[in-house]
Recover the amino acids of this structure.
């Protein structure tokens, strides 16, 4: 269905892709996997026409040649994409976003037929069952809802057609129940006659969904193999080029500093949340989880002062002050946030690595007359880049030139450089590879071992299993279950989130 040969791409002194071949069979779900910086996103952007391939590359779709790197003209409409960045206009509604690519329904007089246009959008979006309001601006939607709209936009007009749908990390912020729904839709697309190129860092997804997998490393194609011939360990070793550990490990116990409160929250109301309260101890890793719309994702934003809607309740960080703070003024608590949507909320794309890292530290780096102490800034940036193992051409490199995993490390370093008593994380490993995930886990666990309280909101059960010593499960805006230590298992988490019996 799709054949690419001799694909190379260079950015300045960086060889992003080197002589890559890729073949996708008709009716196949073909996984593309590799560590951050391996060239996956570059390959997809060349296919989409965003980047132009180096001379010598060739491509065919269903036997018809097309030019790599052309947005219009010879690029096939039957090659559709859902990118990591989604490509949505967030000031517009779901209805407007879908109509941008396939047009509005018209009345007999040539005006927009709004009821029909909205009905058509609702039909596409409702397949996911997430209750997306097709009239509201997407800036007000959750990351999960925006992902659903992007997938729905790509699926327009695919009924019974031959082609290739490319999904780049589509489940990065989806909880288990929504992942299963997405898998069902991907299989429907495959059964309708299309092929799927599926990019993911999640091993369980590759083995549950894909027929074959192509592994990239360092811009080269390492191998293409049937998934049935591989194990999670052998696939991880192909990605990394050496032996690796796979699967969540037993989570270490709380640090010796645990016991004293690092954060106390009372009567928290934000979004769906209704009167949530908890205490986070020093050295504790407290998880908060639930299904989409349960309210769990509002917890870290609310305690950091980053929740966009109305919020009420009170909280305090005893190490900073015994005074209770109204959560409408939660920024006074001094809790930094690693947000769920890295590209939209975590980094300033036009800034460098150094500028992104030091944004909240400018007061500390200013001299007496207000000028920035560049030498002091350089020392701090070098220290944290080395400490969290950021891979970049230098501190002056634009943040968008880094892989997703390295961008996440910069966001993490920015938070930790503030020397907080409490760190809040929302979907901390979304869109990162298995090696970077391990590095982030180790970094978070080290901070907790030193006495920092860590609040982790995640829909990824692997994060909860690997990081958390206690988990609060939220349903319909309230904490319905609390799991401790060995009771934190994937079945227990899923059953508590869905409100079903484990028997």
């Amino acid at each position: 269905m799709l054949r690419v040969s001799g694909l190379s791409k260079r950015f300045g002194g960086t060889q992003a892709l080197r002589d890559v071949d890729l073949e996708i069979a008709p009716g196949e779900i073909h996984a593309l996997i590799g560590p951050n910086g391996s060239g996956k996103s570059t390959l997809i952007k060349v296919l989409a026409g965003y980047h132009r391939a180096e001379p010598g590359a060739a491509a065919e779709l269903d036997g018809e040649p097309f030019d790599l790197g052309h947005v219009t003209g010879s690029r096939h409409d039957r090659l559709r994409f859902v990118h990591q960045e989604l490509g949505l206009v967030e000031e517009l509604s779901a209805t407007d976003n879908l109509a941008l690519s396939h047009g509005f329904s018209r009345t007999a007089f040539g005006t927009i037929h709004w009821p029909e246009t909205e009905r058509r959008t609702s039909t596409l979006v409702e397949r996911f069952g997430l209750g997306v309001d097709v009239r509201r601006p997407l800036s007000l939607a959750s990351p999960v809802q925006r992902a659903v709209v992007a997938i729905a936009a790509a699926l327009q007009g695919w009924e019974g057609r031959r082609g290739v749908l490319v999904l780049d990390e589509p489940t990065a912020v989806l909880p288990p129940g929504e992942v299963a729904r997405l898998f069902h839709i991907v299989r429907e697309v495959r059964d309708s006659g299309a092929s799927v190129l599926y990019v993911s860092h999640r091993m369980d997804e590759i083995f549950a969904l894909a027929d074959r997998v192509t592994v990239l490393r360092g811009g080269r194609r390492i191998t293409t193999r049937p998934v049935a011939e591989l194990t999670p360990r052998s696939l991880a070793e192909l990605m990394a080029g050496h032996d690796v550990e796979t699967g969540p490990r037993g989570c270490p116990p709380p640090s010796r500093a645990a016991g004293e409160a690092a954060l106390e929250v009372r009567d928290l109301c934000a979004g769906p949340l209704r009167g949530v309260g908890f205490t986070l101890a020093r050295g504790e890793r407290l998880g908060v989880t639930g299904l989409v719309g349960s309210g769990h994702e509002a917890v870290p934003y609310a305690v950091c002062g980053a929740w966009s809607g109305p919020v009420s309740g009170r909280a305090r960080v005893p190490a900073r002050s015994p005074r209770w703070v109204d959560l409408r003024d939660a920024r006074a608590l001094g809790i930094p946030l690693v947000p769920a949507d890295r590209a939209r909320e975590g980094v300033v794309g036009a800034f460098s690595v150094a500028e992104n890292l030091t944004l909240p530290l400018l007061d500390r780096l200013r001299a007496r007359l207000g000028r920035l102490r560049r030498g002091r800034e350089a020392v701090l940036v070098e220290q944290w880049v080395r400490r969290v193992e950021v891979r970049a051409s230098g501190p002056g490199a634009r943040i968008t030139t880094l892989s997703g995993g390295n961008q996440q490390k910069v966001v993490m370093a920015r938070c930790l450089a503030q020397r907080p008593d409490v760190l809040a994380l929302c979907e901390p490993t979304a869109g990162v590879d298995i090696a970077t995930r391990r590095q982030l886990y180790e970094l978070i666990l080290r901070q907790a071992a030193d006495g920092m309280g860590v609040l982790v909101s995640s829909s990824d059960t692997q994060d909860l299993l690997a990081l958390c010593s206690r988990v609060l499960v939220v349903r319909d805006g309230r904490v319905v279950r609390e799991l401790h230590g060995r009771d934190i298992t994937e079945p227990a988490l899923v059953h508590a989130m869905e409100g079903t019996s484990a028997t």
